[in-house]
Amino acid sequence: MSRNRTRTGAPAQWSRRKFLGLAAGAATVAAAPRAVRAAAPPDVVVIGAGLAGLHAALLLEEQGATVRVLEGSGRIGGRMYTLDDVPTAPETGGTQVGQFYARVIDTAQRLGVGVVETPPGARFQGFAIHVNGELVAPAQWAASSANRLPEADRRTPPSGLLPGYLGRANPLRALDDWQKPEFARFDVPADEFLKAQGASPEALRLMGNNLNANTLPALSALGLMRSVAIVMAGPQPSKQYEIAGGSARLPEAMAKALKGGVDLRQRVTAIRSRGDSVEVRTADGFRHRARYAVVTIPFSVLRDVALYPAPTALQAEAISSLPYTRITQVHMSARRPFWEDGLPPSMWTDTALGRLFALGTAQNGGHGLVVWVTGPNADALDSRPEAEVATWVKAALKRLRPSTNGEFDVHRVVSWQKNPYQRGAYYHWAPGQVQRLAPHVATPLDRIHFAGEHTAKLMSGMEGAMESGERAALEVLERL
Ligand SMILES: Cc1cc2nc3c(=O)[nH]c(=O)nc-3n(C[C@H](O)[C@H](O)[C@H](O)COP(=O)(O)OP(=O)(O)OC[C@H]3O[C@@H](n4cnc5c(N)ncnc54)[C@H](O)[C@@H]3O)c2cc1C
C-alpha cells in the first residue's frame, strides 16, 4: 500500500442544500456530476461494511470522491445478516423496515432489491404465555391464576406491559425531542420511572424480562421513550416492510454498486489523523492512507481501537461505556406442528428461555422458530458449552410446552455479544447518558468522522445507521 497520496481530482463544489436534496432523491444522486477519479490512496477510507458505512461510501462516490471500504469480518452487512445456510433462511439481525425508513426503502428500490410489505396478519399472532410456572392461552390470561398483576394491569399480556406504560406516559412527540433539555428529567433508570407511574413489583419483574435492553435499572427511561416515539410516528397501525429475499440482500447490493468495492478481513486496530491524511492500521500490519476516515465500528468494539488524536473526555467516556444489548438466539425448526395444542406457536415466558418466535409462517408453515433471550438470560445461555445448548433448549421447551415433545432441529446459535466485530446487538442509553454523552458521540476527531446506528439523531436501527452514514458523508464532502 503506497504511503504517498496522489490526488488527481476534487469533487465538484458541494453545498449542504444541494447534497441533502441529492440524498433524499436517488435519481438526482445518480445524475450528479462526477469528478475525475483519484488514484490510490483514496479520498476516504470507510471502516465497516454495514448499512452506515456502505451508505456513506455510496454517497461519497456518487459525488466523485474515491473511497475504500475496510471490513473486519469476512462478510458484508454487519448486523444485516440472513442465515442463508439454515433451511428456513431466518434473519438473525435487522429485519423489520419501518414505514418511515425512507433511505432504506429508497436504496433497496434503486438497487433493484426492493422491499415487501409484511401483511398485518403475518406480523404477529400473539404469544402463548408461560408465567409463574403455568402455560396460559392469551384469552385466558386476565383470569389466570398465573396472572399476579394488580387489577389495572390484569388484562394486559406481559409483552404489552412496557409499551402500555410508555404509551401512556411518553411526552416525546418529535423525533429529535429526546435530546431537548426539557426532557432531560426522564434520563433516569427505567424501573424508577415505571415505579413512579404506578407499576407493581410483578409488573416490573415481567417488564424486565425479555427487554430489548439488558435490565430496567441499567436503561434510561428517556432512551426507551425515544424508541416508542419512533414507532408511534406516523399513521397507526403502521405499515411494516422487509427487504425482499432477506435483509442481507440490501448491503450486498450496496457493496456491489460501489466502484471501490469492499476489502474483507481487514480488522482495524488503530486510526491516526495527522497532517493532511489519516492512517488506518489493520491487524495484518497494513497501513492504509486516505485524506479522511469514516468510522462506523460499534463503540463496543471501537473501545479497543487506538485513536489519535485522543477523543475528548466525554467522547472517550461514551466510547468506553455505551451499553449494548446482549442477545442470544437459537435458530431451530419444528419437526411437527406443536401448536395443534390450540395455542399460538410463539411463546412469551418469564423463564431463562425468554421468548420463542414462530418465523415466516407463510414460507415455512410456521416451522421456522427462534428462541430469543436478552440480558442476564443471554449471559446464562452463553455460559453453556455450545454443544449443550441444543439439549438444554429442547428439554426446556418440552417442559414449558409439552406438545413440543422436544422435537426440534437446532440449526444455529447466534450470540451477538460473542461476535468480536459487534460485542452486542444494538446500543442503548444508560441512565444519565443521554444528557451527558449523546452530544459527543459523533464529534469528528480531526480528519476522523463517526457514523453508525449509535450516532443517529432522529431514527434508530437500519434507518438510523443510514441517516448517520449520510451525515458523515456530508461532513467529509464539505471538507474535500
Ligand atoms: C438481533 C437484531 C435485530 C435487529 N432488528 C432490527 C429491526 O427489526 N429493524 C431495524 O431497523 N433494526 C434492527 N436491528 C438493528 C440494525 O440491524 C442495525 O442498527 C444496523 O444494521 C447497524 O448498522 P451499522 O452500519 O451502524 O453497524 P454494523 O452493521 O454493525 O456495521 C459495522 C461494521 O463494522 C465492522 N467492524 C467492526 N469492528 C471492525 C474493525 N475493528 N475493523 C473493521 N471493521 C469492523 C463490523 O463487522 C460491521 O460489518 C437489529 C439488530 C440486531 C442485532
Ordered list of secondary-structure elements with their pairings:
Blueprint: H1 16-24, H2 26-31, E1 44-47, H3 51-62, E2 67-70, E3 97-98, H4 102-110, E4 115-117, H5 120-123, E5 128-131, E6 134-136, H6 158-169, H7 190-196, H8 201-208, H9 221-232, E7 240-243, H10 249-257, E8 262-263, E9 268-274, E10 277-282, E11 287-290, E12 292-295, H11 299-302, E13 306-308, H12 313-321, E14 327-334, E15 347-349, E16 355-359, H13 361-364, E17 368-374, H14 375-382, H15 386-400, E18 408-415, H16 433-437, E19 448-450, H17 461-477
Parallel strand pairs: 1-2, 1-12, 2-8, 5-15, 9-13, 12-19
Antiparallel strand pairs: 3-7, 4-7, 5-6, 9-10, 10-11, 14-17, 14-18, 15-16, 16-17
This protein binds flavin-adenine dinucleotide.
Flavin-adenine dinucleotide is lined by residues 47-53, 70-73, 78-80, 93-96, 266-268, 296-298, 301, 305, 327, 416, 421-422, 425-426, 452-453, 461-462, 465.
